[in-house]
Write a structure and sequence with these properties.
Length: 201
């Protein structure tokens, strides 16, 4: 994704500011249903209907055990206490860190955060209009406050998907914040915060 490497230093700086840090990682089996290669005659970025609704078809990516599923080598992983792997069900995609794309299968992230006493979530990573967007929306639906650090994200933007994502997030009260604003938020000792980041490849 163009510009993806640029956010790594920002992600590292953000992670250093919070006491609860969670990573999410796409972890697809080979031949995953969201891959265009799994659908004869279909090309990446086309849309098909799945039992759970519309599904964008993607190039093969983040395949379990392969290099493409690894976090970016410059990403500072030592601050993270948990890694949530998602998208490992063969027939169901997963953008959100909270719930698989079927809207019914939880990842366990919400329970983890609640047990840690987290109420406010600061989100950065890839891609703004898919994984970041769905995670932020599900965070709010799950009773959390969600903040997206816009400059520490990058988008795919398929035919206006970025504008639609921001409109949907804004409608739910999800805040767009700068790195400077996050520095002020993180210094507020009265609010527990967490930071979630997605695979960088």
């Amino acid at each position: 994704m163009p510009g993806a490497d640029e956010i790594v230093p920002l992600v590292n700086a953000l992670a250093a500011r919070f006491s609860t840090v969670v990573l999410t990682q796409d972890w697809h089996p080979a031949g995953h249903a969201s891959f265009a290669s799994s659908h004869t005659g279909r090309a990446p970025f086309e849309e098909v209907e799945m039992p759970y609704g519309p599904q964008v078809l993607w190039p093969d990516h983040c395949v379990q055990g392969q290099d493409g599923a690894d976090f970016h080598p410059a990403l500072e992983l030592s601050a993270a206490q948990a890694v949530i792997r998602k998208g490992f069900h063969h027939a169901v995609d997963s953008y959100s860190g909270f719930v698989e794309a079927d809207g019914r299968t939880p990842t366990g992230l919400a329970g983890y955060l609640r047990e840690r006493g987290v109420g406010r979530i600061v989100i950065a990573g890839l891609a703004t209009d898919f994984c970041v967007n769905w995670t932020a929306q599900d965070a709010v639906r799950g009773g959390f406050e969600a903040i997206v650090v816009e400059e520490a994200c990058r988008a795919i933007d398929l035919e206006g998907s970025l504008a639609r994502a921001w409109a949907a997030m804004t409608a739910l009260g999800i805040r767009r914040a700068s790195m400077a604003e996050i520095a002020a938020i993180a210094s507020d000792r009265k609010v527990d915060s967490t930071f979630r980041k997605t695979p960088m490849r």
